[in-house]
Amino acid sequence: MPIYEFKCNDCHKQFETILTSTAKVSEVSCPECHSKNIRKTISASSYRLAGRSSAIPAGALSGCSSKSGFS
Ligand SMILES: [Zn+2]
Q1: Residue 37 domain boundaries
Q2: What is the Å distance from ligand 1's center to 70 Cα?
Q3: Residue 68 predicted with pLDDT over 80
Q4: With the C-alpha atoms ordered 39, 42, 45, 51, is the resulting torsion angle positive or negative?
């Protein structure tokens, strides 16, 4: 299944979502803050986010949020 990587423009969380044939990108929302202000990034591991912070700790990408609320 195709896994797409998104980044939230509000809380800057990066997350991956499996989009099935019935799912639409426009229906994807941020798992952190539920914002739809997200953008799709390339999920290929060879792609690097130029000009963006690449020093995101791995724990920050796996739902290990230190913030409370939102969910
Ligand atoms: Zn967010």
Answers
A1: 3-61
A2: 9
A3: no
A4: negative
pTM here is 0.54
In a domain, 69, yes or no: no
Determine, yes or no, domain membership for 44.
yes
Three-state DSSP class for 48? coil
Amino acid, single-letter form, for residue 46: S
Instruction: Return the CATH number at 25.
Output: 2.20.28
The β-bridge partners of 15 are: 6
pLDDT digits over 17-63, tens only? 888 877 777 889 999 999 999 999 865 544 455 555 556 565 656 65
Considering its fold, how many domains does the chain have in total?
1
What span, in angstroms and rounded, lies between the C-alpha atoms of 37 and 48? 21
Distance 21 CA to ligand 1 centre (A): 24
